[in-house]
Amino acid sequence: MNERVLTAARELGLQVQMTRFERPTRTVNEAAAAVGCQAAQIAKSIVFVADGDPVVVIASGARRIDPEALCRVLDCASARPASPDEVRAATGFSPGGVPPFSHGLPVIMDQALIAEGRVWAAGGDGNTIFEVEAQQLADCTGATLASVGLAD
């Protein structure tokens, strides 16, 4: 369990239970299988680089992030997924374990995730996740809600 993420959750007013699994939960499919939910209920945190600056995009595991839509929201010229090294440098977490908070980066949340209600998000490493209300997550992180996802 990542104490940094648990402490940040409490500071944000979230009462979450971190669940650590023996098997990896780094991918949407691994996480969904571990908790027995649909891929759409996994709140994936993907780091993008928008005009050179990192930003975290939270979206349903059943949706891809549309870089053009992200640029419209951020008023930027280009956006691309960060490399694994860029993810670690920007957040302090490895890909597959980036939580939706505790990294100090701006957060954009695909508004379609709100409709999922309770979702599961990464807890700071590739084996730990936690359950939270999507709207509560958006509120406590100060996320910009926008349509940045495309159905897979």
Characterization of the model:
This protein is α/β, with parallel strands linked by helices and 152 residues long. The protein is built from five helices and ten strands. Strands 1, 2, 3, 5, 6, 7, 8 and 9 form an eight-stranded mixed sheet that branches. A two-stranded antiparallel sheet has the order 4-10. A hairpin with a 2-residue loop joins β2 and β3. The longest helix is centred in the first third of the chain and has 9 residues. The model has no long low-confidence stretch (mean pLDDT 95).
Secondary structure class reads alpha/beta
Total of helices? 5
How many E-type strands?
10
What is the CATH class name?
A: Alpha Beta
The CATH homologous superfamily is called YbaK/aminoacyl-tRNA synthetase-associated domain
Write the layout of secondary structure elements.
Blueprint: H1 3-11, E1 18-20, H2 28-35, E2 42-50, E3 53-60, E4 63-65, H3 67-74, E5 79-81, H4 84-91, E6 107-110, E7 118-122, E8 128-133, H5 134-141, E9 144-146, E10 149-151
Parallel strand pairs: 2-7, 3-6, 6-9
Antiparallel strand pairs: 1-8, 2-3, 2-5, 4-10, 7-8
